[in-house]
TrEMBL record:
Protein name, per record: Probable Fe(2+)-trafficking protein
NCBIfam families the UniProt entry points to: PRK05408.1 (NF003817)
InterPro entries linked to this entry: Fe_traffick_prot_YggX (IPR007457), Fe_traffick_prot_YggX_sf (IPR036766)
Biological source species: Glaciecola siphonariae
Family: Belongs to the Fe(2+)-trafficking protein family.
PANTHER family: FE(2+)-TRAFFICKING PROTEIN-RELATED
Keywords on record: Iron
Entry function: Could be a mediator in iron transactions between iron acquisition and iron-requiring processes, such as synthesis and/or repair of Fe-S clusters in biosynthetic enzymes.
Length: 90
């Protein structure tokens, strides 16, 4: 049975994540208030950011940068700036 959450990113009720995918308080906040759909949108952007910025996930500074972008995207509706990427217009 799917969990339904009010997705803070999509501003609607949607299927929630099956389990907490991110550690700590931010992970709990994502689990409680971000849908599978919104998290999948973030994962695509995260991949682009990692590749574009040549981020190393073993590096704490790079992880912090990515976490800030994730929180801004999921909870504040801020699109990350990705060189050469133009988001589709609605």
């Amino acid at each position: 049975m799917a969990r339904t959450v009010y997705c803070e990113h999509l501003k609607k009720d949607a299927d929630g994540l099956d389990f907490q995918l991110y550690p700590g308080d931010i992970g709990k906040r994502i689990f409680d208030g971000i849908s599978k759909e919104a998290f999948a949108l973030w994962q695509k952007k995260q991949t682009m950011l990692i590749n574009e910025n040549k981020l190393n996930m073993m590096n704490a500074t790079d992880r912090k940068f990515l976490e800030e972008k994730m929180v801004a995207f999921l909870f504040e509706g801020k699109e990350p700036t990705i060189e050469g990427y133009v988001p589709p217009t609605k």
